């Protein structure tokens, strides 16, 4: 009678248990990862829109009116470079007839949109 252990590798049940555990972990981790990525992109986009709004406000304070986004880039009180949405959306600055300015991202829409009130003639008085 041989005492040598002839069993090699894993049984089918052991392999299925490992696969099941990995599937459960992946089912929890993948949606969390994708949600975190989407949140980071949305927050970066909101920060970009806040930077555009600050540059628009400085421009309106100096010039009395909001300008198109392209006219903010390269200005001394404007933006050093045109911001890029991480999700690929294009930014627009829409000036209404009332003088108010709406800054929006084509991808994130109302999630990150910012509306600036019409500039007053002289904000210090
Ligand atoms: Zn965006």
How would you explain this protein's 3D organization?
The protein is α+β, with helices and mostly antiparallel strands and 125 residues long. It has one domain. It has one helix and three strands; from the N terminus they run αβββ. A hairpin with a 5-residue loop joins strand 1 (91-95) and strand 2 (101-105). It starts with 11 loop residues before the first helix and ends in a 9-residue tail after the last strand. The mean pLDDT is 89. It binds zinc ion (ZN). Zinc ion is lined by residues 45, 85, 87, 89, 105, 107-108, 112. The site of zinc ion has 8 residues, from loops.
Number of helices: 1
- Oligomerization status of the protein chains: single chain
Counting structural domains, the number is 1
Bound molecules: zinc ion
Number of strands: 3
Fraction in beta strands: 5-15%
What percentage of residues falls in helices of 4 or more residues?
A: 40-55%
- Please give the order of strands in the largest beta sheet: 1-2-3
Task: Kindly provide the radius of gyration, computed on alpha-carbon positions and rounded to a whole number of angstroms.
Answer: 27 Å
């Amino acid at each position: 009678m041989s005492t040598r252990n002839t069993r090699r590798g894993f049984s089918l049940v052991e392999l299925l248990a490992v696969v099941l555990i990995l599937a459960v972990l992946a089912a929890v981790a993948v949606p969390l990862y994708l949600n975190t990525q989407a949140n980071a992109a949305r927050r970066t986009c909101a920060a970009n829109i806040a930077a555009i709004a600050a540059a628009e406000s400085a421009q309106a304070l100096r010039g009395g009116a909001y300008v198109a986004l392209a006219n903010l880039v390269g200005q001394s009180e404007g933006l050093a470079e045109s911001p890029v949405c991480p999700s690929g959306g294009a930014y627009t600055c829409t000036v209404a007839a009332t003088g108010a300015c709406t800054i929006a991202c084509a991808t994130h829409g109302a999630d990150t949109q910012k509306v600036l009130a019409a500039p007053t003639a002289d904000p210090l008085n």
